[in-house]
């Protein structure tokens, strides 16, 4: 081309008279011109964006979920009432089996690794 940019010739009135066109005059900064950034077109076509209506979530009256089982301490669950998980190692008990681990040295027969309730 010979250096003529059609966007420099188009006026706001000419641009906006076209169907669905927008006009925006952009001035590049000194740095942008120095870096060779191309000036965006001043006259451009609007993009049509269709937003579909969403459907409302179905309403249900389900019963609330039961609370997740937790590890109960000796104040809530007597050590002798614990259900044994059959492990003695902390890692095997907690990480592998997902059980509770509370050593009871003073209460003979109380499991150290027991199921959550």
TrEMBL record:
Keywords: Disulfide bond. It comes from the Eukaryota. The keyword Repeat does not apply. Transmembrane segments: none annotated. Residues 69-117 form the P-type domain. This is P-type domain-containing protein. It comes from Ciona savignyi (Pacific transparent sea squirt).
